[in-house]
Each structure stands twice: as C-alpha cells, then as structure tokens.
Amino acid sequence: MLILAFLQLTPGTFTIFYHYALGKNSFKKASDLGLSFILGVEIFTALVWSITYILIFEFYKNSTDFCCSIFFWIMFGIFIVEALAILVLYYRKGKNTKLFISRRVAGSLTTNAAKVRTRSDAFTLGFFSCLPELFFTIPLYIITTTILLNTSVLPRSLFVILFIVSSTLPLFVILGIFCSGRNLADIQRFRLSSKSFFRFILCACYLLIAMAILNLGAI
Amino acid sequence: MDDKTIKALKKELKIHARALDIPSGAAESFIDATIKSLQISFKDKSSVTPAELERAVKKEIKKYHPDLAYVYQNRDKII
C-alpha cells in the first residue's frame, strides 16, 4: 500500500505546481491551491479504486477456480514485468529526475503546473497527474481489491481510507517541507540524490508483491 | 535578444525568486544586472537559441543566487 507513496510522478508535479503557486500567489492562496491539488489526487484514487473493485467483484462472481488461478498467474507476471520496468525504465538517464512518461506529457504537466490560478485548475491538475502513472498503479489497485473482496465492510472501508491517504502522503510531506522554509532547489537535490534508492525500493516492493501473489495463487 | 524574450525571462525569474523567498528588491536588482549582462554578451548575435539563453542565464544568475540558478536550470527536468 505504501508503494504508492514512493511513486514519483504526482509528487514531482506537485513540487513544480507548488513552487509556481508560491511564486505567483500569497502563502495562504498557495496552500489553498495545494490542498485542492491533493483533493484531486484523492478523488482520482478513490474513483479508480471503486471502478477496479466493481470490475474485480464482477469477475470473481462469474469465474471458476481455474479462471482465478490463471488470474493470479497473470498478476504475478505483471508484477515481475513492472519490477523490471522500474529498474530499467522508470527514470530516464542523466543527471535529472525525468520519468518514463513521454516528453510531451511531461511538458504538458509542467506547463499546466506553472499556469494554475484557481482551485479548479489545481484540482484538475491533481486529478490528471495520476493518469500517466496508471501503468504502475493499476496492478496495485487490482491486487488490493482482490485481497479485500472477502473482508467485511468496516475493515474494507478503513483500508480504502488508508490506501487513499498513502497515495497523498508524499504530497503532505512536500507541503510540510515547503512550509518549513525549504524550496524547490532543496527538494529537487534530495530527489536527485535518492533516485537510486526510490528505484530500488519500488523494484523490491513489486517483487515482494509478486512473491506474495505466487503464495496466494498456490493456496 | 528581442524585447518579448527579455520580458518573458524577467517575469519567469521574478516568479522563481518570489517562490525562493528572495527579497523583491534584491531579486529585481540582480535580475536586471543579469539581463544587462546577457544583452551585452548576445549583442553581436542575430539569433539566440533557447539552449544558449538558458546556459547564459544560469551562468549569470549563479553569481548572485545559486538556488535560483539551479531551479531555472532544472525547471523542466523534474518529471
């Protein structure tokens, strides 16, 4: 669940967005816009989680044991591929934190982050900044919903809340760092120095989940 | 360097300076000094590429505020 906190696209977009918001607005307005961005990310996470839950629920209702075992093997394969993809493709080469997304999308996100003026702009940016990373997040949504299918309503609801909070945890941390007087330069230097660490952690987490799926499938 | 480029550059540097919490008076003066120095160094050139401009701005701004130079240089390399 905490893997979502290590993914870099939304925190990166938020860092650029908040830097420009501080440069163009008062501190109060910038914080206001920052919270709207975070709300956008939370709504996106909740929406994708709900859609995934419905689809997985329907799948399990209409499938046989054999289908479920195939499903687990497919998920195992996806997580292995993604672990390798993180190792090789997640960051681009060079002394920067450029990610795997196309340069056009990255440019568009950066431009829009610099242009945000209203709360709705910030909300929309937060909502859409999660979209290009779906390749890495969708399997996480699928596996968590699968695990939660057989649980009762209360633990499931608590888990969903935790899931949403964990996806926005780095954004609150970045907001706190900005509020403590640090700036984009400090954050970017930190991101650059911990690039390999994030890559290693993400790869290890995806591999661990793949192993857990293998165990679940065997059961 | 045409007026439009200078105006856009000045505006962008001011936004970065404000976000980095640099006092506006100090920021204004070193941004003006940077632009003056750029105009002198590009005086004989008919056209300046964005990469050339970025390199020159970074080099000049670094003399006054290294963090601002770093942010300017990395603004499109974050994601």
Kindly describe this structure.
The complex is a heterodimer of chains A (219) and B (79). Chain A has one domain. Helices cover 80% and strands 0% of the residues of chain A. Chain A has 9 helices and no strands. In chain A, helix 1 (9-24) runs antiparallel to helix 2 (27-61) and helix 1 packs parallel to helix 4 (103-115). The longest helix of chain A has 35 residues, at 27-61. Chain A is globular, with a radius of gyration of 18 Å. Chain A starts with 8 loop residues before the first helix and ends with a helix. The relative contact order of chain A is 0.21. With 79 residues, chain B is mainly alpha-helical. Chain B has one domain. Chain B starts with a helix and ends in a 5-residue tail after the last helix. The chains are: A mainly alpha (219), B mainly alpha (79). At the A-B interface, helix 1, helix 4 and helix 8 of A face helix 1 and helix 4 of B.
Can you describe this structure in just a few lines?
The complex is a heterodimer of chains A (219) and B (79). Chain A has 219 residues and is mainly α.
Keywords:
heterodimer, A: 219 residues, mainly alpha, B: 79 residues, 4 helices
**Structural class per helix/strand content of chain B?**
mainly alpha
Bin the helical content of chain B.
over 70%
Number of distinct beta strands of chain A: 0
The end-to-end span of chain B amounts to 29 Å
What's the shape of chain A? globular
List the helices and strands and how they pair.
The complex is a heterodimer of chains A (219) and B (79).
Chain A: H1 9-24, H2 27-61, H3 65-88, H4 103-115, H5 119-129, H6 134-148, H7 153-179, H8 184-193, H9 195-218
Chain B: H1 3-19, H2 24-41, H3 50-64, H4 66-74
Helix pairs in contact in B: 1-2, 2-3, 3-4
